[in-house]
Design goal:
The chain has 145 residues and is mostly beta strands. The protein contains 1 helix and 6 strands. The protein has one helix spanning 55-64; strands spanning 4-10, 15-18, 24-37, 44-54, 70-83, 89-102. The protein is globular and about 50 Å long.
Length: 145
C-alpha cells in the first residue's frame, strides 16, 4: 500500500496550470517538522516535500491555500526521473495529493482581514462544493517561522 499522511505548512503559493485537455494541475511545497528536536541545535529539523494535486483538488488549492497555510495532506508517493541539461540522470520523489484539508493555524497576512473558507462565494458558479470551514484569526506570534 502506498499511502502518505503529512501535516505541515505550505512553502509557496500553489501554482495552478491546465493541461491541453483542460485538466487542472497544481504544484505546491510543504515543510514538515520532525517529531524530535535536533540534539545539537535544540531546534526541530524540517523536511521539505513537493506536492501535486489534480482536477478539483488542484483548483481548491489555487483558490484557498497560500504560503504558510497549515494543511493535512493525504496522498501517495510517486517517483520520477529525467536527464538534466548536463546529461546526468536525476530522480526524485513527489507526493500526489488525494485529499488536502486545513489543519489549524498557519501564517498569513493579518492586515488583510481575509478569512480562509473552503466554500466558494455564491457568484463562483460552483454549487457542488460542500466543504465547511470557517477560519479563525491567527496572530503572527503563533507562527513557528
Amino acid at each position: 500500500m502506498n499511502k502518505v499522511f503529512l501535516t505541515g505548512n505550505l512553502t509557496r503559493d500553489p501554482e495552478v496550470k491546465y493541461t491541453p485537455n483542460g485538466k487542472a494541475v497544481s504544484k505546491l511545497g510543504i515543510a514538515v517538522n520532525r517529531r524530535f528536536k535536533n540534539a545539537e541545535t535544540g531546534q526541530f529539523d524540517v523536511d521539505f516535500f513537493n506536492l501535486t494535486a489534480w482536477d478539483k483538488t488542484a483548483e481548491f488549492c489555487g483558490r484557498y491555500l497560500r504560503k504558510g497555510t497549515r494543511v493535512l495532506v493525504e496522498g501517495s508517493l510517486r517517483t520520477y526521473s529525467y536527464t538534466a541539461q548536463d546529461g546526468n540522470k536525476r530522480s526524485g520523489v513527489e507526493i500526489w495529493i488525494d485529499n488536502i484539508e486545513f489543519a489549524g493555524a498557519g501564517k498569513r497576512d493579518s492586515d488583510s482581514g481575509e478569512k480562509y473558507t473552503s466554500k466558494p462565494s455564491s457568484d463562483s458558479g460552483n454549487d457542488d462544493f460542500d466543504d465547511d470551514f470557517s477560519g479563525e484569526e491567527i496572530s503572527d506570534d503563533r507562527v513557528p517561522f
